[in-house]
Fold this protein.
Amino acid sequence: MVLRNELLDAESDSDASDSEIEDQGPSDPFQSYNGHGNYKVNRNVASDRSEVDGITVPTLLPIPPSLQNSSESLCSTCKSLDLTPQRFVVLPGDPVVPGEVNDSDAEPPANITLGFIDDIRKKAPHCPFCRLVLAALGPKVPSVGNQGDKVEVTLTWRTDSTVRTLRPRVQTKSGDYYLSLQPNSNPEIAMLANDAPHEAAKKSQLVRLINDQIDFDMVRNWLSICRAYHGGACDESKLMGGYRIKDPAIEIPHFRLIDVVDNCIIPAPPGSRYVALSYIWGKIDLTKILRTVKDNYKQLEVPGSLSLPENQDRIPLTIRDAMIVARKLDIRYLWVDSLCIIQDDIGPGGSKMSSISMMDLVYGAAYLTIWAANGIDANAGLPGVRPNTRGIQQSIEQVTPNLRLAAKMDSQDFTRAEAYFTRAWT
Ligand SMILES: [Zn+2]
Ligand SMILES: [Zn+2]
């Protein structure tokens, strides 16, 4: 079926699903959070609560031994940057660092020159910060530009009022446009939250160590932030031109949902909150998988029917993982095209075409959408749901004994975009 519009929604959700390394919401009683990644420092509110509005930030993972007591030291260029934990947070009353930029400013010229990419590559085996800069820029940065002159790396401090990060940029003397050289669109280096100089900063937008499996406490934290701070903005779908659906069970004909508690597929109960799954089928054999059809939809309404081996074994892995995610997030219902649309109910009066025509409402009204962004087919699974499936390596370096820095990851780093962006049918 054509999922013509879902990508818009998926993109907005992908920020939340991928960026476990940032944006953990309100945490500091001295700060108020506007829900869009920005805090306002407010020194008039004094309290030692670790929770604000019921939002709990999960505790940090400990620093592994591999990131402690490194015997390496920085090269002389990196040493002269004078990197300290204090420089990576903004404390109330801090003076503005010369040359630092705010998100709202236009990008000024970079103000620190780190050297030519060739030289940085030579120093990288011995200098942890040189190595991190290369990791942040990505593996494909060329040594020479289009005009044949050497590619140089510069650094800019950037602040968003609570944290400072360093942004490496590459360019050549003849002024090749840096983006054309740079595979990572937005390379950025931030401090590991564990090394923050004060408690509040540990919970702000610094990099967190992540596990092999998804931290669902963190996902619940994001959902709480959404509920507490985003108001109606997240209920209105871009897909529907700002239209806010009141109850999909009533407004969408033939609307069915997977009940992940009773393990069956039922007509959507009124007012049900659900997760939608956006994924690609790829080249899988449709005759071997479980799909809802006129012959089995009644049987699949029976509680427990999806747990029967003859059914469960035929549910593609990505869908099974999505069921686990919904359960972990305490959201009882899940919408998946192959199981929630009666696949052979076609022809005059059939439900299939009307369901497909309502697809934008289905995604638009979902409480959240799981975007299976890196799978090449429906059996790829969702990385991090089961053990040893995440496959993410964070680039973190110990640059001084009390400071570890990380190349921030972008949602693009997790996306096998090609398969997703090129498909038209699922
Ligand atoms: Zn260095
Ligand atoms: Zn939201």
User: Anything to note?
Assistant: Residues 74-75, 77-78, 123, 127, 129-130 surround zinc ion (ligand 1) (CB under 6 Å). DSSP finds 15 helices and 14 strands in the chain. The first strand starts at residue 31 and ends at 33.
